[in-house]
Design goal:
The chain is α/β, with parallel strands linked by helices. The chain has helices spanning 4-38, 70-73, 85-89, 113-130, 154-171, 202-213, 228-231, 258-279, 292-303; strands at 53-58, 80-84, 91-96, 134-137, 148-149, 191-196, 218-225, 238-242, 249-251, 282-287, 328-332. The strands form three sheets. It has a six-stranded mixed sheet, with helices on both faces. A three-stranded antiparallel sheet has the order 9-8-11, with no helix packed on it. Strands 1-2 form a two-stranded antiparallel ribbon. Helix 1 crosses helix 4, helix 1 packs across helix 9 and helix 6 packs parallel to helix 8. The radius of gyration is 21 Å and the shape is elongated. It starts with a helix and ends with a strand.
């Protein structure tokens, strides 16, 4: 008899245990960060665009009974609400890079890039839900699908769906996304927030973001990077081990390539910022050795209507992968 079944079951159990262990402290941290930022900001409600039909969505706790579309609901055993384009545009859609490159940190940072991206995503969701907004997870394989969430239990549901999608991406690399896909429909004029390292070739980044711009949506790109990806602080002979199976690299003397690395880094970073400007997207970079509250405040204000939302958000800049390749972890060779 094949041992695939028992082995798979044990692996699933370990993943479920890891998911259960990571979720509560992450939610606590997200709520704490959101509460800190909430003390200094106000709500961001604004007028949407258009009142034409967008989609039917499942009835959620907190929805008024008067909003139920009984004709559509009669076609199945579920209850549906008719959502207009204006209402859909008030939903903030959240996406995070689930690729292996996010599961790395240097000695200069307290957390992995993916952990910080998850914290920022959930803290932003907590802040938005606190202000009466609806949020949606952009993850093609999430159990939440295109469901928009609001109300008392929304943050827990979003967090569970988010963590499940991350675990699935970790178990099946084919499901991992280093850039947002086009497989999920988005309402026109919705707000979209993207968290990732955005270290893919600029041509790939442009293709992905251009699809979003064509919807169109109002997007904010937050690049999450480790400080070592800026400083390249290694010395001597170092083997850089690729996290995405694109090949390792042995550098005999890192000091000799640091200047060329910095120049290439700057070109990529300038190109990424220029790309976002050309598409009308806001852009900033957050370093994982910096407090998350600072990044969340800048992001929340950028999502708000008004003069404080104009222009690019301030922040550190960094980059690592050798640009257009896989992100590399360092190990002495």
């Amino acid at each position: 008899m094949s041992e695939a079944g028992p082995v798979s079951s044990a692996r699933d159990a370990r993943r479920a245990e890891a998911l259960g262990a990571a979720l509560p402290p992450l939610l606590v941290a997200a709520r704490r960060v959101a509460a800190t930022v909430a003390q200094g900001v106000h709500g961001r409600r604004r007028v949407g665009q258009g009142d034409s039909f967008w989609q039917f969505r499942p009835f959620l706790p907190g929805d008024a009974v008067a909003r139920i579309d009984w004709r559509q609901s009669a076609k199945s055993d579920r209850t549906f609400v008719r959502e207009t384009e204006w209402e859909a545009a008030q939903t903030v859609c959240l996406w995070a890079d689930s690729s292996a490159s996010m599961r790395w940190r240097s000695r200069l940072a307290p957390v992995e890039k993916g952990e910080r991206a998850a914290l920022l995503l959930l803290a932003l969701a907590a802040l938005l839900l606190r202000g009466g907004e609806r949020v949606r997870l952009m993850a093609p394989h999430s159990p939440l699908g295109t469901q928009s969430l609001s109300g008392r239990d929304a943050l827990e549901k979003l967090a569970q769906g988010f963590m499940q999608s991350l675990m699935q991406a970790r178990a099946e690399p084919a499901f991992a996304e280093s850039l947002p896909s086009s497989s999920l429909p988005l309402p026109r004029y919705a707000s979209v927030v993207l968290f990732g390292d955005f270290l893919d070739p600029l041509s790939a980044v442009q293709t992905s973001l251009a699809r979003l711009a064509a919807v169109p949506v109002n997007a904010y790109v937050m690049q999450v990077l480790d400080p070592a990806e800026l400083a390249l602080p290694f010395h001597g002979r170092v083997r850089f081990m690729d996290l995405e199976e694109e090949g390792d690299a042995l550098i005999p003397r890192v000091e000799g390539v640091r200047e060329a690395y910095a120049e290439r880094f700057t070109r990529h970073q300038d190109g990424l910022a220029a790309l976002c400007r050309a598409l009308g997207f806001r852009f900033s970079t957050h370093m994982t050795d910096q407090p998350p509250e600072q990044a969340l405040l800048a992001l929340y204000l950028a999502l708000a209507p008004g003069p404080e939302a104009s222009g690019e958000a301030s922040g550190s800049v960094a980059l690592f992968r050798p640009f257009g390749g896989g992100t590399l972890g360092a190990a002495r060779g």
